[in-house]
User: What shape does this take?
Amino acid sequence: MVRGPKKHLKRLNAPRHWNLGKMGGIWAPKPSAGPHKQRECLPVCIILRDRLKYALTGKECTQICMERCVKVDGKVRSDPNYPAGFMDVVELEKSGDKFRLLYDIKGRFTLKRIDREETAFKLCRVNKVFVGKNKIPVAVTHDGRTIRYPDPILKVNDSVKVDIATGKMTSILKFEIGAMVMITKGHSAGRVGQLMHIEKHEGSFNIVTVKDTKGNVFATRLANVFVIGSGNHPEVSLPKGRGIKKTILQEKAEAVARGDL
Assistant: This one.
């Protein structure tokens, strides 16, 4: 008889973008319930142990968290399995590290080092806009925030710049032709480009066409698109590669030029 949700996660079933070794043990950290989905997050202990190498074991990750060293979006998180996700700001005050979680060109989470000015805000995608209890208009973002009394021009699929300290919306990035977008799901996850065209399909998935700075054109579902700026001006600093996908042959040629092959 099953009693409630599963509390364990085997390593083979962990999301591929965590990059955990297949032979490194049986278990993987199961993300706690939180603002990001289990398959679209990176637990704090994987950031500490597998990405930053500040810990060797899960127990050391727990000790670091319990000493209140880790902040996610300006709040101390003492749960080693806390799910950090796309656009979250991770701070380690003792070491002076500040990172933003973004996708690299292969669709894997990468920690992009940022400066003090950039830790003050994050971008959030608007998933829902509705009128709630007592006729209060509410916007719900991709990381579970509810913003009350949003600007009336705010629509679903737009992005908002949120001040992390206050939780208030400071500016709106409209979802429109010419906007700079990052793909957050699907085969093109991690790619960055300019929105060129939106196809509406009643009863099916709406498709958007995106063109990157090298002129490559690709299409994806509208739900996979996250507005990060306008024109060629992103609001956040982009990771290495700047969201331009290379072919296998281009990657090989670059590796040969570097002397890696």
Observations:
- The chain has a mean pLDDT of 93.
- The chain is about 10% helix and 35% strand.
- The longest helix spans residues 248-258.
- The two ends are 55 Å apart (CA to CA).
